[in-house]
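Quick one: structure for this chain?
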Amino acid sequence: MNRAQLIIADSEKNANLYYATRFLAPDPFILVQADGRKQLVMSDLELDRAKAQATVDEVLSYTALARQAKQRLSGEPTMLDVVDELLQAYGAKAIEVPLDFSVGHADGLRQRGYEIVAKPEPFYPQRLLKSEEEIAFLTQTLRATEDALESAIELIRNSEIKADGTLWIGGKPLTVEMIRKVLHMQLLERNCIGQHTIIACGAQAVDPHNEGSGPLRANEPIVMDVFPQHADTRYFADITRTIVKGKAAPKVRKMFDAVREGQEIAFRMIKDGVDGSVVHQAILASFESLGFKTGPQDGRMQGFFHGTGHGVGLEIHEPPRISPRKDILRAGMVVTVEPGLYYMDAGGMRLEDMVVVTSDGCLVLTQAPKILEV
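Got it. Here's what it folds into:
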């Protein structure tokens, strides 16, 4: 049975579609892959631009295919009639689609006699292994992120500690919102777009994805997790640093040292063929040996209760995962290494770098220093 692959989406939101076509558009369009060929079906608005920019074998006119389909239909053709028209030329009766494919589209195609096969991620396995060009794109975004992060840290470094423990600068309280604004402006100057940037101080950071809000305080850990996307290449970067303005408490210092050692354990272990879950368990065991237990405490999770890392590319979270679940690392993958510790009596602590998996180890891409007290 002939089988085709089909994506109907907009490439601004669908990384698989952008990866396959390198064509960026805000409205849905059609990609069909069959017999080793990639064909796009585009509206008249985008037809010529797609012909000039898309990395496909052929760009077809939606209007022309709809006109062709109308000859065998009683009413006006729908998008699925246009897809049907194209697939009939291949004799395909089974269609492979991504897991996020529209249920409505799937039902409509089944009604037209097609078998729909939902293919698990990665829809394009080659996305897991980054080319030299992709690694250069990721590094470009990372360098911009490091520069922007340093500007934000410098603002905290130059702040004044008031008697009540709050940080002030320029005659007013230094807030998470001010730091986030500086970061995002610095990123924009480098053609990167930051969203949901985490600047979480003290107890806020015990929830790892709490974006943070309000005044920053002295002598408390501030977790800064920045993960922008480059506006041109579409590739992300991901970096986390934790700093303290003033004096870190002894437990916070021990957490910082433990998390740094956790990263070093991962750097020593990561290489082609290694199971990410083994790396994760080694870090967890190291934390346990240092007295940092993980589990419910006082009604909430504390300790190290998230994964060690994830892939980064056209999406901020991609396969593979370095987590309790088995996932084999391969040379060419780009992953984060981001162990963390979180306790209500101390705050949050996380450090994150990006690495390229190699045949005999890993190459750390991140260059930003790791300094606790500023």
